[in-house]
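May I ask you to comment on the folded chain given beneath this request?
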Amino acid sequence: MAPLIALVLGTLAARLAGWLGLDYVDGWPTAIAVGLATMLVVTGVAHFVNPLRRDMIAIVPPRLPAPTLLVTITGVLELLGAAGLLYPPARPAAAVSLAVLMLVMFPANVYAARMPSPPKSMTTHLPLRTLEQLVFVGAALVVGLGSVQ
């Protein structure tokens, strides 16, 4: 739930700043990019801080190799993606790439939902987690498509 809260609050704060005259956030796609970047900093940092890192490693499906390395790589990609969202020339590519990354990482959530004893931080019910994921991917697509000029 923290990532969703970060997305919503980051977006609303950015849009408010735009309404107050900050030209950088002059529209909803840019405000959503800031909210999405905020969310990705929250989730990206979680890839490196226990107990969340340990929990993320635990939900990597067993058929995938090197779970620790995969969690590290995805954390780095999320942080780089957040930076890309904030740099207007890179924003469309970053947003679309992040949408793909989120879709690629989603099977770990399915695996966690089916685990008999998932880590406590990963116990979100799959329908709710799926809905959240659709919001995140949708936000990335709004940013990616709304930033093309």
User: Anything to note?
Assistant: Residues 91-114 form the longest helix (24 residues). The two ends are 33 Å apart (CA to CA). The CA atoms of residues 81 and 98 lie 6 Å apart. The helical segments are 2-19, 28-46, 52-58, 67-86, 91-114, 126-146.
